Amino acid sequence: MTTYEDQQQQQQQQPRQEQHRPDQRAEYRIAPLLRSAAALAVPVVRDTADEELGAPTPCAEYDVRGLLNHLFRVVENFRLLAAKQPSDFSGADPDRLAGPEWRKRFEEETGLLVDAWSAPGAEEGTTGAMDLPARTVGAMVLLDLTVHVWDLARATGRAYEPDPAVVTALTGEVAGMAPTARAMGVFGAEVELPEGASAFERLLAVTGRDPRTWAAAL
């Protein structure tokens, strides 16, 4: 969907009033939502079969293997960002699936991610090379761990429904970043959905994903 560098540039280009929306941000904390997202992500990753690694995904730039490697990189680097440490998103995503225990490693890494964002001060101040608000960076990893896990679930023919609290929090975040993200090519064109679409389906549509197309594979 996006790289951290893309997201940093996007946030830097947003008007200041879009970057700081205290009335929306005060309603949730990152760590509990990440814990919920991680708890749903782990079984989706764990149940991905080796023979599915070459399958296409709703995130057109990745097949299943590429998407999993990207998720590993996201989880590892955003753990560092929670601790205000340097991250490295340069170059191609390393292959984290080379060994037999990658599913277990993903579970361990997501646990460390949640722990890092649960630490005192993780959501305070700024972090990353461009000194973005830590809460903004936390929302970025929450978005990736939600939308990319949906990508993975759909690519492997499984259902996925995130915690409604996660969807509520991300709806405000994504609405604010969408115009700039779309102009930069980070999000695709918003997909029009019929009346009755769920809040999560509408969130996916804002990022350029069509939940109807991929739902047909289930």
Brief description of this entry?
The protein has 218 residues and is an all-alpha fold. It is built from 10 helices and 2 strands; from the N terminus they run H-H-H-H-H-H-E-E-H-H-H-H.
What does this structure look like?
With 218 residues, the chain is mainly alpha-helical. 58% of the residues lie in helices and 2% in strands. The protein is built from ten helices and two strands. It has helices spanning 4-13, 16-19, 22-25, 30-46, 64-82, 102-118, 134-155, 164-183, 199-206, 211-215, and strands spanning 126-127, 132-133. It has a two-stranded antiparallel ribbon. A hairpin with a 4-residue loop joins strand 1 and strand 2. Helix 5 (64-82) packs parallel to helix 6, helix 7 (134-155) crosses helix 8 and helix 8 packs parallel to helix 9. The longest helix has 22 residues, at 134-155. Mean pLDDT is 87; it is low at 15-26.
Topology:
Blueprint: H1 4-13, H2 16-19, H3 22-25, H4 30-46, H5 64-82, H6 102-118, E1 126-127, E2 132-133, H7 134-155, H8 164-183, H9 199-206, H10 211-215
Antiparallel strand pairs: 1-2
Helix pairs in contact: 4-6, 4-7, 5-6, 5-7, 7-8, 8-9
